[in-house]
């Protein structure tokens, strides 16, 4: 396997408390490796440490402890070289709202030491449907267009590693689609992408690997498909024709229980590899043998969002 493009080791960040408030530990012994060319989704609730982690890699936040290496270089020694190869789409617009779109994006390219290239800037602006707005002041744009400008500024210097911090939060469906089309193109070009998002279905669709962070700690990092297989569950509910007071021994299975005053039989089990569906079919056959009638089965498979919620809430069945 190729060397990782980014290696984070034992990273800590503690913010001093204000007044009498105690210090706040935003990052706690974070260890993470990012593979070159992958799309990595970092999921976590508000305040989990996602933005602090991104800020540390991009040189915007000074860590309390630990090391960050990118492109084989140590961030403490080679900050400028590393930062020139990283793009960042932050959550908030910076203070250049009185500049025109074209000037802002062109300046951003030069800021990271890239030579002037009007054709490349035009290509970026056109890819984000901003070319017609190139002479408009950023402050005059809609919220969605401002978000496009942030993305254009991050892409202007052709980064090898791109951070997207909630890139589609609060934007319209059209921009969201444009954004994911752009990500597909960047993946094809070999750009490594790390994104945070509240739209977990986007991570489920786009990411190669997923990490979950909460309270400054990485709870889990895994290939998306492996995570779904290992932590996924099948849930099924049999709506019974007549209520049961107990589950017959011949029907009883691990993960099977009565609900709704005995009017429903609920199953939760499997591991995301198809065994859950097999168990549901086995339960149906057992009910038929016992002559227990039901008039509906409602079955669903876990989504990445289900797994995320389980991890964050630290439910015993996920930790097991």
Automatic annotation (TrEMBL):
* Matching SUPFAM superfamilies: P-loop containing nucleoside triphosphate hydrolases
Note the PROSITE patterns from the entry.
ABC_TRANSPORTER_1 (PS00211), ABC_TRANSPORTER_2 (PS50893)
The portions of this protein that span the membrane are none
Tell me the CDD domains matching this sequence.
ABC_DR_subfamily_A (cd03230)
Protein name (Swiss-Prot/TrEMBL): Multidrug ABC transporter ATP-binding protein
Name the PANTHER family on file.
ABC TRANSPORTER ATP-BINDING PROTEIN
Keyword annotations: ATP-binding, Nucleotide-binding, Transport
InterPro entries per UniProt:
AAA+_ATPase (IPR003593), ABC_transporter-like_ATP-bd (IPR003439), ABC_transporter-like_CS (IPR017871), ABC_transporter_ATP-binding (IPR050763), P-loop_NTPase (IPR027417)
User: Could you confirm whether the keyword rRNA-binding appears in this record?
Assistant: no
Molecular function (Gene Ontology), one example: ATP hydrolysis activity
Which top-rank group of organisms is this from? Bacteria
Q: Which organism is it from?
A: Croceicoccus naphthovorans
Specify one Pfam family.
ABC_tran
Task: Extract the coiled-coil ranges from the record.
Answer: none
